[in-house]
Amino acid sequence: MSRPANVRYLAGTAPTGAVLLLGRTEDVLVCGRPPGEEPGTELADAGLRAHVLAAPGGDPAVVGAGQAAAQGAETLAVEEHHLTVARHHALASVAPGVRLTDLGQGVEQLRLVKDEEEISCLRIAAEIADQALGELLESILVGRTERHLALELERRLVDHGADGPAFATSVGTGPNSGRGGHRPTDRRVEEGDFLSVCLGSCYRGYRSEIGRTFVIGTSPADWQIELYDLVFAAQRAGREALTPGAACRDVDRAARHVLDAAGYADGLPPRTGHGVGLEIDEDPQLAPAAMGKLDACVPVTVEPGVHLPGRGGVRIDDTLVVRCEADGGPELLTITTKELLAL
């Protein structure tokens, strides 16, 4: 295993560049630095042997393949979707008698359903993001740039105990609001703007995501209220569709139908949400062509949005855990109010 999130899932830690070799007689974490020594990493799981490279600059994957050959392995499964072509060739050259096969998405499938310890980390990550966002809303926003607000949010995440941001924080004002993945600019917040914020926290490797839209200054305009209420209704429909056994495409359809019926079929985001965990964008995908069904204890985002070119838009984004009705239905992890606030 070479994909960092997969190494972290199975080994309990993932130093930079580390690989995990599951061998015939023992499992070995091959890494450039001892686990726990690198900032932001933890100790490996008890009983797992760590092989630290003797010289800097080596490739742990190549060393791991050589160890597999030395153990007499005839076949070595690798994560081809993560390896570069050059790295794959290097593995083949160091272990010419070993047949390389593709492990595929085997570990990613194991990661889909989270245990309660993982969900606890996600819950704390969500709480940290809620705290950072709530504090920002209490400050003066008019005149500040998107870039400044994004940097402040990321600082507040760390102040509250996050490893760091789960992804690049997005802040959009005025005509930039409501755009998915908007990269903050030097545009300043103005009276009457929509302000959309999307941020996430990483805690012990697990990532949350929250997105909210606000109005700056006085009471919102009629068109802003109408658009916000529409996206809120779509997001609620998506959240209510999160039940064990529900088809992923049906969750997307539930949210998308609300926006389609209001005449916003064109230009909608390609998906309504996605899984979260050790990566911010995991399976399952909540999209029109998505395959598969939801299981209990699978955390996902529900994040519909509408952007009107030149005017701005609305995005509302929550992280939830799929739960059965007997357990209270979907568990909402991000709890910052979804009321349309005038700041």
TrEMBL record:
Name of the featured protein: X-Pro dipeptidase
One Pfam family per UniProt: Creatinase_N
Protein source organism: Streptomyces alboflavus
Region of interest (Disordered), residue spans: 166-187
Domain Creatinase N-terminal, residue spans: 2-113
Domain Peptidase M24: 121-322
Transmembrane region(s): none
Coiled-coil region(s): none
